[in-house]
Each structure stands twice: as C-alpha cells, then as structure tokens.
Amino acid sequence: RVDALTSYPGRIGDTPGTNWLLVGSDSRAGLTPEQEASLATGGEVGPSRTDTIIMIHIPEGGGATTMVSLPRDSYVPIPGNGEDKLNAAFAFGGPSLLVQTVEGATGVHIDHYAEIGFGGFAGIVDAVGGVNVCVQNAIDDPLAGINIPAGCQDLDGSEALGFVRSRATALADLDRMNNQRAFMSALLDKATSASTFLNPLKLWPLVSDTASSLSVDDGDHIWNLAGLAWAMRGGPVTTTVPVGGFQDSDVGNVLVWDDTRAPAFFEAIAQDREIPADLLTGGP
C-alpha cells in the first residue's frame, strides 16, 4: 500500500463516475539478477519512473468504460517542479505527486490508484496462463527481450512485458501505447473469463499474484480491483489524449497536448459524458 491519493490545497472535488490511475513503473524491486536478465530489464537505472500511465473512467450510470493513455513524455506542470515530462513527477515525488500532476493537468479527480513493476506484471500474465494478442507487424527488439512474428499468438509473462515496453516500431511511443491498451484489454478479458473464474488452478494463482504484485492506495481493497476488472469486460473504449505534436524544451524533446481538443476531451470525462468521436484517437 502507498499513500497516493492525498489531500492538497486546491485539489479538484469529486467528479462523477469512477476514475483509476494505473501505473506501470520501471521498478526492478525484488528481482534477482537472474530474473532481471530473463525479463531484459537492464538492471536498476536510478529513481523509478513510470513506463506506463493509463487513466480509466467507469461511467456512473453504466455504459462503456474508457481507457486513456497519458504519454509519459507529456509536457505538463508538476507542482513545485515547473514544467517537465509527466513521468518525471513519479521520480520527483512518487505516486502522490504523480496523481496531483495528473489531476491538475486534466481536471479529473482520481478515485483509485494501482501500480505494478516489471516482475509483478510478468507474474500476473503467467498466472492466467498467458494472453493472446494480435500483432500487426513483427517486433524484433533486443532491448525489450522480444522477437515475435506478426499475427495472433499467446504471450507469456516475459514476452508480454517486452511487448508493452518495446518502442522498436514505426511509430515508437504511439505504437507502444496502442499495444499497452490492447494488451490490457486482452489481459482483463482473460482474467474475467469463465475459463479463469471457474478453474481454481487459475483463479487462486491470479488472485494471490495480483494481491502481492500491485501497490495500491491506502484506501483501496481487492474488491475495488475486482470492480475494475469487471468494468473492463466486453471491450472498453481505448484512446490517447489528443496530442498537438512534439517540441524541444529545457528537459529535451517532449509531447504537447492539443490546446483545444485535450481540454474538451478531459471535460467530457470530468462531467461523465460520452467523449465525442472526433476527440478519440490512437486505436485499437
């Protein structure tokens, strides 16, 4: 458990619906050197940063859940630290500063927080017996430890970790975010399927591995995670925050959000309204 959802002056009030912030960190905590090698993590590289940042909105009155990728290189104000890349907030101040930064940049109140490191992610995938994904183009990425062909295939834990980490594709980070959302949907669909729920040999390892692999806010419980997985069944709406492009800054090349479309996008989420189709980007 971590103290992620803290009070701070000027914090936005509760907004309709339920909003999760899911974070995949590059933490190698708890991994042996052999495990680091098998997962191609590259060893410790200083303060943990967030490889993956996803906001999930569950509507109050039913309807499709929305999964939104927040690019880690997004150029946003970080309280007390000026403007920087979004994932730097985690390195500067941990989960609580990351949540505060996301709330300030989006105007959306975060209700729940969950974070997972490299080893925990691979363990959950293995607990459900692997996950089937359809890969549009072959990916050969020694840095991520994968070499997989195009087409539909089952990925085990180490392969899945490489798949969601790899940027060795034509669109780099944009492809990576699409892959992350597609894989997350497939994983949650497998985890909530009858073949998992009715098979104690799969269900018990899944529950125990999930509980031991995730860091959640002090106020979160296992039934909150179950509610999240259940809300993701049947295929959520998957998208990326509308982006305006890339630019050079004092912290390197950064991604900037669209000045007009991004505020309208997050306003729809904050008001628990369906996001207009012309604001949705970056399928699947």
For the termini, the CA-CA separation is 32 Å
The main pleated sheet reads as: 6 strands, mixed
Question: Helical stretch count?
Answer: 9
User: What structural class is derived from the secondary structure elements?
Assistant: alpha+beta
Mean pLDDT: 83
* Helix percent band: 25-40%
Poorly predicted segments = 43-47
Shape: globular
Task: Give a short summary of the structure.
The chain has 284 residues and is of the alpha+beta class. Helix content is 36%, strand content 24%. A hairpin with a 5-residue loop joins β4 and β5.
Please specify the SSE layout and strand pairing.
Blueprint: E1 18-25, H1 33-38, E2 50-58, E3 66-69, E4 75-77, E5 83-85, H2 88-106, E6 112-116, H3 118-127, E7 131-135, E8 139-141, E9 146-148, E10 151-155, H4 157-165, H5 173-191, H6 194-197, H7 200-213, E11 214-216, H8 222-231, E12 237-240, E13 243-249, E14 252-257, H9 261-270
Parallel strand pairs: 1-6, 3-12
Antiparallel strand pairs: 1-2, 2-3, 4-5, 6-11, 7-10, 8-9, 13-14
What does this entry look like structurally?
The protein has helices at 33-38, 88-106, 118-127, 157-165, 173-191, 194-197, 200-213, 222-231, 261-270; strands spanning 18-25, 50-58, 66-69, 75-77, 83-85, 112-116, 131-135, 139-141, 146-148, 151-155, 214-216, 237-240, 243-249, 252-257. With 284 residues, it is an alpha+beta fold. 42% of the residues are buried. The longest helix has 19 residues, at 88-106.
